[in-house]
Structure formats: structure tokens, C-alpha cells
From TrEMBL:
Pfam families (UniProt xref): DUF3109
InterPro entries linked to this entry: Rv0495c
Annotated family: Belongs to the Rv0495c family.
Protein name in UniProt: DUF3109 family protein
Organism whose genome encodes this protein: Maribacter confluentis
Length: 189
């Protein structure tokens, strides 16, 4: 671990490679699991505000869950998260013609209907961020369904921190990311 400003960062995001391979995993991170995607306090109002514009992109079962439970819910850990369909699929998930899970929020963004891409936790994946009183932990979340992404990242030689560069800048800023690049260059010497 190393410290950048008020963050504690795992070297694993520098040392491990990762590039999503949706053809192999089919977007399993959006449909497998026991909890929704983490939603930051600052994102909850956005989730409510964008729902009407995102709704046309969603599946009927996702819409039903969101209308019944809300745009976000309190998870078992006490944190905000996206609601789930059938206890596993994110309510915002949609499927393309190849049955690959995609984000309905991101689809609305891609089509210019909203200006917010998706929860930052989804954008950052496989990095998970945990806020503490004084510091923020930045860690690599290993999950077997992402094995194809690890293999593709290794083949293409793309470390995790480069794969999620846009999301890290979105979360922590350009200056933070520049410092991370410097640490990575020194670490890999």
C-alpha cells in the first residue's frame, strides 16, 4: 500500500492487468452477486433525477423494482446501492443482442439523454473504494468472473490503473492520477 494525498492505494492496481472482456464474461458483474452496485451519497439525488430519462432504456422488470424500491436502496452493510431484480441482477441492467449485460444508465448517457455516465463504483470496477474518516482506501476487487478480463489485460499489457484511468480521474482528479502514474513508474522499475 502507498499513500497519495488522502488515499491509501493498493499496489495491486499497478501490478495486475485488466481489460473487460464482455464477449467472455457477458457482463457478469452486473448480474451476479448478492448486492447492488455501491452508490455514493452524492449520487443518490442524481439517480432519482435521471430515472425518467433512463426509464425508456430499462427492462420492465428493472423498472418495476425501481418503482417499488426506489432508484437506490440501503444495503445490508448500511451503504447505498442499486436495487436488484430477483436478488442478483442490477435493476439498471439491460442486455444487448448477444445477451451481454450492459448498463441502462450508461446507454442513456451514450445516446445523449443524460450527462452522468453511471455510478462511479461501476465506472471504477474492478477497483473498489472505501471511505474512512481520515482516508479513502483504493483496492483491487478480485472476482472469478473477471478471469477473462485479467487474461485479456495481461495479453494487452494494460494495468488496472490504466484501464480505469477515466474513472480514477473522475473520482480523484487529474493531479491525483498524475501522481499515481509517477508512483507506478517508480514501482515498476
Amino acid at each position: 500500500m502507498f499513500q497519495l494525498g488522502k488515499t491509501i492505494v493498493s499496489e495491486e492496481i499497478i501490478e495486475n492487468d485488466f481489460v473487460c472482456n464482455l464477449n467472455a464474461c457477458k457482463g457478469g458483474c452486473c448480474v451476479d452477486g448478492e448486492a447492488g452496485a455501491p452508490v455514493e451519497d452524492s449520487e443518490t439525488e442524481i439517480m432519482v433525477d435521471i430515472f425518467a430519462k433512463v426509464k425508456p432504456f430499462l427492462r420492465p422488470e428493472g423498472i418495476k423494482v425501481i418503482e417499488e424500491q426506489g432508484a437506490f436502496v440501503k444495503g445490508e452493510d448500511g451503504e447505498w446501492e442499486t436495487p436488484l431484480v430477483n436478488g442478483s441482477e442490477c435493476a439498471y441492467v439491460i442486455f444487448d443482442q448477444h445477451k451481454i449485460a450492459k448498463c441502462g444508465i450508461e446507454e442513456a448517457y451514450n445516446q445523449g439523454k443524460i450527462k452522468w455516465k453511471k455510478p462511479v463504483s461501476c465506472h471504477l470496477y474492478p477497483i473498489r473504494v472505501k471511505e474512512y474518516t481520515e482516508l479513502t482506501a483504493v483496492n483491487y476487487h478480485k472476482w472469478h468472473i473477471c478471469d477473462p478480463a485479467c487474461a485479456l489485460g495481461e495479453e494487452l499489457k494494460v494495468p488496472i490503473y490504466k484501464f480505469v484511468k477515466e474513472a480514477l480521474i473522475r473520482k480523484f482528479g487529474e493531479a491525483w492520477y498524475s501522481e499515481l502514474e509517477e508512483v507506478a513508474a517508480d514501482h515498476l522499475k
